[in-house]
Structures are given as structure tokens and as C-alpha cells.
Amino acid sequence: MRFDVVTIFPQFFDSLRLSKIWRNAQDSRLIELFVHDLRNYARDKHRSVDDTPFGGGPGMVMKVEPLVEVIETLPKLSERKVLYASPQGRKLSQSWAFELAQSSQLVVVAGRYEGVDERFVEGWVDESFSVGDYVLSGGELPCMVLLEVVARLLPGVVGNWESVASDSFTSGVLKFPQYTRPAEFRGRKVPEILQSGNHEAIRRWREEQSRLRTIGRRPDLLKREKEERNEV
């Protein structure tokens, strides 16, 4: 998959390569990441990408011209989607991430200030997305979240697909508790079933723990799954 990021802070995305999984996926060309500095598409000598809002009000608004120019300059693959990070957007979920992972190209736009000119959203954005009901200073972090969520769903990016298949939200329930050595630490012991070597019993225990954990911590997931089954 090809990822294109539009931002005024391209250096943010250098940190993705701190992840070995992401770095290996890029080196193996399973994913391609291109980060585009929006200021390179500004039309004045000051490289301005924002201006005061029509109608007055605080802050600045990102200009429509450089945003449209960068989008129209990019190569367009067959299954391209243009996504804009916004608190008003559709909340990112694992199920939606699976849909996005079927695309050949995702263009993600990181806004700043009071947002972007609405004409850009109406004419050039396929969908806005949000990572939660809160507001950040800019869209760079939400864009990085989306890249990470989608990239690990692509075949070959995560070495062991079972790790992805058993993730919280992928399986419809939260993931079971995990343990590693030592078997006892300050009086806290690893459940004996996990040390038994009985793989079928361990599988049943993990399924039960996932169910109980979901009931206790996120019962809304079970309700949502039931509603989706009824819709089908």
C-alpha cells in the first residue's frame, strides 16, 4: 500500500521508523510512505498556508489552494482514498481499518489551527476521521495512529498473523491477559493452566478470559457485535 501524508510538520513522521515492524515493512516494500510538506505548495514568498477566517473569529484557517494543489499533484492509484483528520470525523475503529486496508493508496491530511477551508473537505476529501472525542493541536498524531492501525493489517507486515487475528477489537472481544517469565513475582503467580502444556485447555481459558474481560470492561463491544449480527 502507498501512504501519502500532507502536513506542515513532516518531521513528525520520521518517528515511525523507530518501529522495527514499520521499518521492515518499508524496507520490504510492503508499504510506501511519502510525506509532503504543505508549505512547498504555498503560492507566496512567505510559504503561507493559513489565513484569517471569513466572518471573523479566533485563530487561523488552512487555505484551500495549497491543499488542493498537493492532492492533485499526487499520483492516483486505482483504489485511492483521501482522509482528513478532524474531531468531527468518523471515529476510527478496527472494522473500518480493515476496510481501509483494502485500498491501494491512502492520502491522509493533517490539519492545524482552526481547521481547513470547508471547500477542500467538500470537494477533495473522501472521508474525515477522528481518533477520539477530544481535541489535539493538530492532525499529525491522529494521522500516525491511522497509519499504524491500517499498516499492521496488511499481509506480511506483522510476521505472525495470529497476533493480529487475536487482537482486541479484531476478534470482537478484548484480548485475554498475557504473562511471561518469571512464573512468580513478589507473590503473584502465573495461572497454572498456562504452565500446564495442555493447549486445548489453554485455548478455552483464554476465550473465557476474553469474554469475562469484555463483559467487565467493555460490554458495549458485545452489544455492538449482537446488533451487527442482527443487521446481517
- The number of distinct helices, counting runs of at least 4 residues, comes to 8
- Count of structural domains: 2
Alpha-carbon distance between the termini? 30 Å
For the record, what is the CATH homologous superfamily label of the largest domain?
A: SPOUT methyltransferase, trefoil knot domain
Rounded radius of gyration (Å): 22 Å
Strand percent estimate: 15-25%
The total count of strands amounts to 9
Might you state the CATH topology name of the largest domain?
Alpha/beta knot
Could you name the CATH class of the largest domain? Alpha Beta
Widest beta sheet: strand line-up: 2-1-6-5-7
Structure description:
- There is one protein chain.
- With about 230 residues, the protein is of the alpha/beta class.
- It folds into two domains: about 1-150, Alpha/beta knot (3-Layer(aba) Sandwich); about 165-230, Trp Operon Repressor, Chain A (Orthogonal Bundle), CATH 1.10.1270.20.
- About 35% of the residues lie in helices and about 20% in strands.
- The protein has eight helices and nine strands.
- The model has no long low-confidence stretch (mean pLDDT about 95).
